[in-house]
């Protein structure tokens, strides 16, 4: 059992390599090991490749064949973080590929809730005479693919709210100055987090004030910049904003309310910006509808870096799944700007509830990660 857990842990680490650039597919890891009778050595490893294909199992199978030959796969043990697919899409079914290779045992961490799979992959393997076991490292596998699972089950991406504050919870001084509250290490870590998300979002106010680029600017990782999203109900974003002028290089979209000015919409589209319109809610974007559009587009993980307005709106709507909170060892005081506005909490029972899952030092700053309590 310890050996099984070790191999599945390796598969989970491989799966994490795909976060942020395999959507709409899940990030899956796979390790293939020769049966104990054949020496028990690792034959192949794989993870989902960019744009979601080839799948992890295919990569691992191909690697095993090149290194050790097809016969080495007979009776092999396969550790995979998500149920192998059973439907034919842009790739052939992984379940069929595994059974055709005559592997002996497949250990699946998490079953796939996608209606096109949902147990069919496991059923195919068992019908082919392959021993299948499920549930090993289930919690860890669900954490890695929380975004994919959210999209399948709820039709929207997992929402991570990132904020950076002083120790007394301020994001800017009373004059609006905010660069830089956290240090270089924390800012670099935030860029790494961008690379593990499919999309990054801000509100129109942040664009107007900061004119951000919202790219991943770590050395060698410029190709890992996520889709850039601006919540802009009335298309107030300036056409000379960096997000607009670089849209041909980094995919960018604006989400606005239905009925916005048609000429403005056309101007953005001519600049290479996609414009999606959704229903309004009291004159503002219906955030649930906006997230559903992102889900329909295949986005599984959304990182929100906006200011207090968009953060507050998402919290009030109950649409924040985790908070990524950087805190600097400094103080601004009561006249500084808080990260959140009025949440409408009249009773303690109405507070949005989160629990801490990780705390670590990043340079001179602290990073706390909180997940929503169901």
Notes on the structure:
The chain is an alpha/beta fold and 374 residues long. It contains twelve helices and 16 strands. A nine-stranded mixed beta sheet has the order 10-9-8-7-13-6-14-16-15, sandwiched between helices. The protein has a five-stranded mixed beta sheet with strand order 2-1-3-4-5, with helices on both faces. A two-stranded antiparallel sheet has the order 11-12. Helix 3 (94-100) packs parallel to helix 4 (120-127). The longest helix is centred in the first third of the chain and has 15 residues, at 2-16. The two termini are 31 Å apart. The model has no long low-confidence stretch (mean pLDDT 93).
Work out the radius of gyration. Answer: 23 Å
Report strand %.
15-25%
**Number of helical elements:** 12
What is the global morphology? globular
Instruction: Tell me the number of strands.
Output: 16
**Biggest pleated sheet:** 9 strands, mixed
Percent helix: 25-40%
Topology, please?
Elements: H1 2-16, E1 29-33, E2 42-47, H2 56-68, E3 77-82, H3 94-100, E4 105-110, H4 120-127, E5 131-134, H5 138-144, H6 146-154, E6 158-166, H7 184-195, E7 199-203, H8 204-210, E8 227-231, H9 242-245, E9 252-257, H10 262-270, E10 274-278, E11 280-281, E12 284-285, H11 287-296, E13 301-304, H12 308-316, E14 322-328, E15 354-362, E16 365-372
Parallel strand pairs: 3-4, 4-5, 6-13, 6-14, 7-8, 7-13, 8-9, 9-10
Antiparallel strand pairs: 1-2, 1-3, 11-12, 14-16, 15-16
């Amino acid at each position: 059992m310890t050996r099984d857990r070790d191999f599945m842990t390796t598969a989970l680490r491989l799966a994490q390599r795909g976060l942020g650039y395999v959507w709409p597919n899940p990030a899956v890891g796979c390790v293939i090991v020769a049966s104990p009778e054949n020496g028990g050595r690792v034959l192949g490893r794989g993870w989902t490749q960019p744009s979601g294909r080839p799948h992890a199992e295919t990569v691992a199978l191909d690697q095993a064949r090149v290194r050790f030959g097809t016969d080495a796969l007979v009776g092999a043990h396969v550790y995979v973080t998500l149920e192998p697919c059973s439907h034919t899409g842009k790739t052939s079914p992984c379940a069929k590929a595994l059974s055709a290779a005559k592997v002996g045992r497949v250990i699946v961490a998490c079953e796939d809730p996608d209606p096109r799979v949902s147990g069919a992959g496991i059923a195919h393997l068992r019908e082919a005479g392959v021993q299948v076991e499920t549930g090993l490292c289930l919690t860890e596998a669900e954490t890695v693919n929380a975004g994919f699972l959210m999209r399948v089950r709820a039709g929207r991406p997992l929402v991570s709210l990132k904020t950076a504050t002083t120790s007394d919870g301020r994001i800017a001084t009373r004059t609006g100055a905010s660069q830089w509250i956290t240090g270089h290490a924390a800012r670099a870590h935030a860029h790494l987090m961008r690379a593990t998300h499919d999309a990054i979002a801000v509100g129109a106010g942040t664009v107007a004030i900061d004119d951000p680029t919202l790219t991943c600017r770590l050395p060698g990782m410029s190709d890992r910049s996520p889709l850039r999203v601006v919540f802009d109900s009335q298309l107030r974003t300036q056409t000379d904003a960096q997000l607009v002028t670089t849209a041909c290089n980094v995919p960018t979209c604006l989400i606005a309310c239905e009925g916005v000015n048609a000429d403005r919409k056309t101007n953005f589209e001519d600049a290479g910006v996609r414009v999606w319109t959704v229903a309004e809610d009291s004159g503002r974007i219906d955030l649930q509808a906006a997230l559903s559009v992102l889900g329909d587009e295949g986005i599984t993980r959304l990182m929100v870096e906006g200011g207090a307005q968009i953060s507050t709106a998402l919290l009030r709507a109950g649409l924040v799944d985790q908070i990524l909170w950087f805190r600097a060892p400094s103080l601004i005081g009561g006249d500084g700007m808080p990260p959140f506005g009025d949440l409408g909490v009249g009773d303690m029972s109405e507070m949005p509830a989160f629990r801490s899952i990780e705390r670590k030092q990043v340079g001179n700053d602290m990073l706390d990660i909180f997940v929503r309590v169901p």
